[in-house]
């Protein structure tokens, strides 16, 4: 298929493509800027179809760097700059990159990183080098790898996920057929570009010819002001971002063109949903992963009120099945053209996730109801059995996230001589204290008695990956060290 940036620069040259602060670029201006950067990158003698690791923040220069590498046929490996030095070095070796390019705004992190074991350049230095004549890729081969990013590694070492142009294209098409694409659309990107949630917004922009409003990081006041004063129509959020925005939702509402939040990272709780409905704020819940180049299942706002907790139905052209009868929990498997072709350096691990008939095992458990709506219960390696009953930590955490004094909670299963395992909760309390008896009573109002945690343990902070996902295996180790 034709180079996506070139295509949009030809189709809609004067349409806005990127807005960041007081700066903006039309598609033709973005093309010129990206081609110039591609010419400057040429001086590094980067080889086509080879890999370059980039550590970038949500700045326009970083956005343009990703595009420039793709123009040259070079594969950007997007790394999380919040990782520790050892983690970064492990991923650089695993990805077998030629070199590393670092956003100059991330210098404060480099002390912790140390030497990265690969030739390393500051983006600021590249931007002042001479401009050579770049060899721009006129076409994007559908099976060519457009990007590589690593999974969060909540249970072990992360995998480098290959994402082809086909993967991104079909992800964008599935999203468009679900959300629609309006001529006035503008997508606010406050999620990191090195996550699939952020990168997929950039890729949709190139497919749709749609402007992206980029912010450096999520700030509640700044984002609220943008939603009120700029013609933003869509914003991707995770539950914590949505709750913070609702807490300061202005009486006058957002700008009149705003049409939806796209919610990922977990289902919406009843209280938050009720608040959104009261404010007439549409929220589209979704389910996806790095391996699927973003969302593969989505729940419309119209269905949300009577399908509480559901992730929705599979998008076009995703096929989804659960290895269990209707309404019973089993392994979630998918087949779609937006599923990765494999992992960097560990294709064997990827092949183990494929069924004999070619479906991808997501590693999640869930069930389909009688109307075909998917309910995700959690990771298959998080589930535990207590007294013969299956317990899913995500379900318990979802209920307790509606409790006013809980800032964060994570549930694990611990060994018990009578029941096999029992649920134990680690809690970060908003006020710094909590009443365990009240938490037990709250749980018994909303959960079966065997699902209510038998113990609540207070922490100042839950252990998380650099991308913010809770590492339950570390909590299990902590429990064993504390109580064994």
CATH homology superfamily of the largest domain: ANL, N-terminal domain
Strand content: 25-35%
User: How many helical elements?
Assistant: 16
Q: Return residue spans where pLDDT drops below 50 for at least 5 consecutive residues.
A: none
Supply the CATH class of the largest domain.
Answer: Alpha Beta
* DSSP strand count: 24
Report the biggest beta sheet as strand number plus sense, adding barrel if it closes: 9 strands, mixed
If classified by CATH, what would the architecture of the largest domain be?
A: 3-Layer(aba) Sandwich
> Numbering strands along the chain, what is their spatial order in the largest sheet?
2-1-10-9-11-12-13-14-15
- Tell me the radius of gyration: 23 Å
Class by SSE composition: alpha/beta
Whole-number total of structural domains? 3
* CA distance, first residue to last residue: 59 Å
Q: Overall 3D geometry?
A: globular
Oligomer: single chain
- Give the rounded overall mean pLDDT: 91
What would the CATH topology of the largest domain be? Rossmann fold
Secondary structure: helix percent: 25-40%
């Amino acid at each position: 298929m034709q180079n996506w940036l070139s295509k949009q620069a030809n189709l809609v040259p004067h349409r806005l493509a990127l807005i960041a602060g007081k700066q903006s670029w039309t598609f033709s201006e973005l093309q010129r800027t990206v081609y110039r950067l591609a010419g400057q990158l040429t001086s590094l003698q980067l080889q086509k179809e080879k890999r370059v690791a980039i550590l970038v923040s949500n700045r326009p220069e970083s956005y343009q760097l990703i595009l420039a590498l793709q123009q040259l046929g070079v594969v950007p490996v997007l790394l999380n700059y919040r990782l520790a030095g050892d983690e970064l070095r492990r991923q650089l070796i695993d990805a077998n990159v030629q070199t590393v390019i670092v956003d100059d705004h991330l210098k404060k992190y480099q002390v912790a990183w140390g030497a990265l074991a690969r030739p390393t350049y500051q983006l600021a230095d590249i931007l002042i080098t001479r401009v050579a004549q770049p060899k721009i890729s006129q076409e994007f081969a559908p099976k060519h790898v457009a990007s590589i990013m690593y999974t969060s590694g909540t249970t072990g070492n992360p995998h480098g996920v290959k994402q082809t142009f086909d993967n991104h294209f079909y992800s964008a098409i599935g999203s468009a057929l679900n959300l629609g694409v309006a001529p006035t659309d503008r997508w606010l990107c406050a999620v990191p570009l090195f996550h699939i949630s952020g990168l997929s917004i950039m890729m949709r922009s190139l497919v749709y010819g749609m402007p992206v409003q980029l912010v450096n990081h999520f700030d509640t006041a700044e984002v609220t002001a943008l939603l009120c004063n700029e013609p933003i129509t869509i914003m991707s959020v995770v539950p914590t971002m949505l709750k913070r925005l609702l807490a300061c939702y202005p009486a006058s509402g957002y700008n009149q063109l705003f049409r939806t939040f796209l919610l990922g990272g977990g289902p919406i709780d009843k209280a938050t949903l009720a608040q959104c409905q009261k404010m007439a704020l549409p929220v589209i819940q979704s389910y996806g992963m790095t391996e699927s180049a973003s969302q593969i299942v989505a729940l419309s706002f119209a269905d949300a009120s009577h399908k509480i907790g559901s992730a929705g139905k599979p998008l076009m052209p995703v096929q989804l099945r659960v290895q269990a009868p209707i309404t019973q929990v089993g392994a979630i498997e998918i087949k779609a053209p937006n599923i990765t072709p494999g992992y960097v350096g560990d294709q064997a691990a990827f092949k183990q996730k494929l069924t004999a008939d070619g479906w991808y095992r997501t590693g999640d458990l869930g069930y389909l109801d009688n109307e075909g709506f998917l309910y995700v219960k959690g990771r298959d390696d998080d589930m535990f059995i207590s007294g013969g009953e299956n317990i899913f930590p995500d379900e318990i955490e979802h209920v307790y996230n509606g409790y006013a004094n809980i800032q964060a909670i994570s549930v694990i299963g611990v060994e018990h001589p009578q029941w096999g395992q029992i649920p134990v909760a680690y809690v970060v309390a908003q006020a710094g204290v909590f009443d365990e008896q009240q938490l037990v009573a709250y749980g018994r109002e909303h959960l079966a008695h065997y699902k209510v945690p038998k113990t609540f343990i207070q922490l100042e902070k839950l252990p998380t990956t650099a991308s913010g996902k809770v590492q339950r295996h570390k909590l299990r180790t902590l429990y064993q060290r504390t109580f064994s």
